[in-house]
Amino acid sequence: MSLEAMKKVTEAEQLSAQRKAEAESAAKKATAEAERSGAEELKAAKQKAEQQVKAMMADAQAQAAKDAEAVREKTAKTCEALKKTAQERLDRAAALVVERVVND
């Protein structure tokens, strides 16, 4: 093999090694960028999910408060109706007692 052919082979090998090193460096940079980008996206997704959870909790609490108020109002109405019925019965019972005492 001639000296010039050996130089060409050596240059080709060096060029190949240089390109391989550049490709490895580019791959490492791309991997690091992808990991950084993925971490940022994950963080953003977590924050969005947390905001959605907070909004859902606020909605659920507001609905629970409305439901509790509705139940309280219904219970108050039922209680008033029972008190009215009890008072009417008490009045009738008192009248009946008075009638029996007077008639006896």
Key features of this structure:
single chain; 104 residues; mainly alpha; 1 helix
Range of helix content: over 70%
- What is the number of helices? 1
Q: Strand-residue fraction?
A: under 5%
Helix-strand pattern? H
Distance between the termini: 147 Å
What does this structure look like?
Helix content is 97%, strand content 0%. With 104 residues, the protein is an all-alpha fold. The mean pLDDT is 93.
Write the SSE topology.
Layout: H1 3-103
Quick summary:
It contains 1 helix and no strands.
